[in-house]
Amino acid sequence: WLKYNLIENSELSDSYSKITNSISISSESEVFKNLKKELSLALPKILNNKTKFQNGFTNETTLLIDTFKNLPTDLKPKIQKSIDSVNEEGFIIKSIAFNNKQLTIITAKKEVGLLYGTFKLLEFMQLHKPLTDIDVVDSPKIQLRMLNHWDNLDRSVERGYAGFSLWNWQKLPEHIDQRYIDYARANASIGINATVLTNVNANALVLTPMYLEKVEALANVFRGYGIKVYLTARFSAPIEIGNLETADPLDSEVQKWWANKASEIYKRIPDFGGFLVKANSEGQPGPQNYGRNHVDGANMMATALEPFGGNVIWRAFVYSEHDDTDRAKQAYDEFLPYDGKFKDNVVVQVKNGPIDFQPREPFHPMFGALKKTPLAMEFQITQEYLGFSSHLVFLPKLFEEVLDTDTYQKGKGSTIAKIIDGSLYRNKITVMAGVSNIGTDINWTGHPFAQANWYGFGRLAWDPYISSEQIADEWLRLTYNTDDAFVEPVKRMMLTSREAVVNYMNPIGLHHIFDTGHHYGPGPWVDNLGRPDWNPVYYHQTDTEGIGFDRTTSGSNATEQYAPHVQDMYNDVTAIPEEYLLWFHHLPWNYKLKNGEILWDGIAIKYQEGVDQVKTMIKTWDASKSYVSEQEYNDVKMLLQIQLKEAQWWRDACLLYFQTFSKLPLPDKVEKPT
Ligand code: GCU
């Protein structure tokens, strides 16, 4: 989306040239250098002319980029009101009559706002928006807009489908790959301001001096783009790399070890963000190994980071094979008693749904229920359960659905977006995290359209209220072509792609019926794993009578974890939105759906609909051939063929398996498996 295509419309191009004819920049700081570099790269490409830069404001200046405090004194009153309304990372782009001339200004409280403003101006140009009367006042609504890389030190990426990890630990710290810089540019252009470099299943080695030197080199690149570096911290690190015998958070030696580690890191990286921690989850070590709890563990690390302004992001992705409670209930049960007990610099990071990044889940019941603890949203951008990088699935549609959901925890209107951006409970730290889908692939993300998921995540982390439709529209125009005849149908294709994957993988509330380990293809029949809570049969509970997981009052009662209004809705089979039906209800095969179909037919028809939607996606892409390059066309076309084959595979495998229980024929509309 930073392609900077030439603008062929000369009227538009001339008007942009007038504005960017003479650009005044006053400082040589890293941020200023980077925004100047971006303009020098972009403007000649967009406008086919050379850009003139000046030191400080002069009579010739047409575009002035400076922090508010450095603006010419006579100019300040014209901007004062706007500047008062933006936050520390916000910016203003304004066209103003000044000294009998028209001047465009990009200003902000801090330099980083200027960077965001510059990218916004370039975005507007790429979108062919009029700039003559531009008046933009914008601030991010969430403080930490963060990528979580699940990258290992050997450069493999857990659940990564776009090549290897970008971080070339072997060549660091000396060798700064251009890709680190391009990565930072791409992130800054959409407002991402934090990155966790390493996997949540952490290797403690990254905290040793040899690696910290390399982390420092990356932090030095990212700083000039407003991006702070975080690391995952393995809870048992004091034992593994510190020669201690315990990692007990109440042990004073352990506390000292973490305090010293924090101080060592901050000496190298003064703006280090902090630690992301996966503790007592899926076999990872944690405070419970020592009879302590999440608060003991998180607060101990928070105390170590506190003097330096660092944060602990403590994950709530916990469930245990020793607990026979419904897995969907365990995190809430475990964390609710600790609400309000964490230190101020702790945030608890919660996945969007209570199981694990399924194509569709109801929202995680912790959202809104913990009222005194800041909760971070954890989305997954990498498509672990959504066809990896082979399937085209536009995730902002999923993110939007979650963010717009009303938890009713503080009455009607208690949406997840309001919980995450802090406006509902006024929490001090706000975070949205996305598990990255970026790797060494030539196009960064494996599937060309998976870039839209990175882009869209960033846009929603900046403003969780914008629509997925707007995101798709912008991304297509920036990335491929601004012609409406291309954008409109391809946008529709993107917007239906998420429902398509739900239909051909997990319709009507089915979930976690993926084959073992890789989570790619179907495996609803799997029933022999070491942990029962990893077996797909646990999740669909199919028998000759029917299908679905009873999580209502007659079953696991997971519904009790939601606010009363939501409980009532989910418990009532006639009130629950049908997309969550089998998540919460076990129903007979001949149960009548709202459209009159029996459940068995309804499931089968949904699987078919998913396949048909992919067929339509292929038609749409075929019709777009003339708007993209041959290579771009072929690349996506081949991937869509894989998607079709696999949608059919999902349909056939799941229906043939479920049919051994339902013993009912497939409805006519459904293609018969070959
Ligand atoms: C999923 C994923 C794991 C990951 C885990 C987590 O279960 O399959 O690879 O480690 O989530 O979020 O911690």
Strand content: 5-15%
CATH class of the largest domain: Alpha Beta
**Global Rg:** 26 Å
Biggest sheet, spatial arrangement of strands: 7-8-9-10-11-12-13-14
- Quaternary structure of the protein: single chain
Q: What small molecules does this complex bind?
A: alpha-D-glucopyranuronic acid
Q: Helix count, per DSSP?
A: 20
- In total, the number of strands is 16
Looking at the structure, the CATH topology of the largest domain is: TIM Barrel
Any idea how many domains?
3
The backbone outline, from C-alpha atoms, is globular
Instruction: Specify the biggest β-sheet.
Output: 8 strands, parallel, barrel
Q: How would you classify the helix and strand content by structural class?
A: alpha/beta
CA-CA gap between termini: 41 Å
Name the CATH superfamily assignment of the largest domain: Glycosidases
Catalytic activity: Hydrolysis of (1->2)-alpha-D-(4-O-methyl)glucuronosyl links in the main chain of hardwood xylans
Subunit structure: Homodimer.
GO molecular function: alpha-glucuronidase activity; xylan alpha-1,2-glucuronosidase activity
Pfam families: Glyco_hydro_67C, Glyco_hydro_67M, Glyco_hydro_67N
List keywords for this structure.
674 residues; alpha/beta; Chitobiase, domain 2; TIM Barrel; Alpha-d-glucuronidase, C-terminal Domain; 3 domains; eight-stranded parallel β-barrel; six-stranded mixed beta sheet; 20 helices; 39% helix; binds alpha-D-glucopyranuronic acid; xylan alpha-1,2-glucuronosidase activity; alpha-glucuronidase activity
